[in-house]
Design brief:
The chain is an alpha+beta fold and 109 residues long. 41% of the residues lie in helices and 17% in strands. The chain is built from five helices and five strands.
């Protein structure tokens, strides 16, 4: 299982065309999470390792995910979404990424 296998997480299921075409939808069998959060990944097993119960619980209620989908690819965590480039939005997005990285299991990244 490649550690760099991409993982894409969105509150609305809005993914770039490439992601829709190339990556599988991931179901966690956690009904509340699967209803609220959409996941696509190159490797379902890796996605399951990263989306622990604690991470799923947090993401399901994390309102910032609606603004910024999460992309984890090649050990790089970033967000997507459209936002104005202001100091406030960039700092808010950076704060969200810090929170996400702090919640993902570091030993599995």
């Amino acid at each position: 299982m490649p550690e760099s296998a991409p993982l894409f997480v969105s509150a609305h299921g809005a993914f770039p065309t490439r992601v829709m075409r190339e990556f599988e939808q991931v179901k966690t069998f956690d009904r509340d999470f699967d209803r609220a959060v959409k996941v696509r990944a190159a490797d379902r097993e890796r996605a399951a390792e990263l989306l622990t119960q604690d991470v799923r619980d947090w993401l399901r209620t994390e309102t910032r995910l609606a603004q910024w989908p999460i992309y984890l690819e090649r050990a790089t965590l970033r967000t997507g979404g459209h936002r104005p480039l202001t100091r406030e939005t960039l700092l808010a997005e950076a704060d969200f990424l810090i929170d996400v990285s702090g919640r993902l299991p570091a030993d599995r990244l």
